[in-house]
Design goal:
about 150 residues; alpha+beta
């Protein structure tokens, strides 16, 4: 009798947290870039979005009227993050090319014409990619700001 009671209480206490977590909303997706963030939760009535800029969070329930703006906001935040990462990557690559060519110049006291052309092409490629990422990042900052204001003002 005591063993059965012990097994019953053990099963009850191990299965109780499963029911609590099953009733709570769970996170479908989240992202953050440039001070903007979003979290998508699955609620009982539909999707719940928590969007914010810096420390100001706003909760929005997804409806047909705002579904497109919420999707565009999520896409813009994700694109902003990828452009920021691309800019950091391009600047890092430019620094590596610069340090490598400086070390090469210090060792040989002369950079051959072919090596100089290769170094210049690598540096120009990194500068081009950095400028393209910066322009894309600025465009995404404007997009994210537009969608954030349009969602929070209504």
């Amino acid at each position: 009798m005591n063993k059965r009671l012990l097994v019953l209480f053990t099963m009850l206490f191990t299965l109780l947290p499963v029911h609590i977590y099953a009733a709570a909303p769970f996170v479908i997706g989240e992202g953050e870039a440039g001070g903007y963030q979003y979290t998508v939760l699955k609620g009982e009535d539909g999707l719940i979005w928590k969007i914010g800029y810096q420390d100001q969070m706003v909760t929005i329930y997804e409806k047909e009227e705002n579904q497109a703006h919420l999707d565009h906001f999520r896409t813009a935040v994700n694109d902003l993050g990828s452009h920021t990462f691309g800019l950091i990557l391009a600047i890092s690559y430019l620094i590596i090319v610069g340090i490598t060519s400086l070390v090469f110049y210090k060792k040989t006291k002369h950079i051959p014409r072919v090596s100089g052309m290769i170094i210049a092409c690598l540096a120009l490629g990194a500068v081009y990619y950095a400028i393209a990422s910066f322009i894309g990042m600025q465009a995404e900052i404007e997009d994210v700001g537009y969608y954030y204001v349009s969602l929070t003002d209504s």
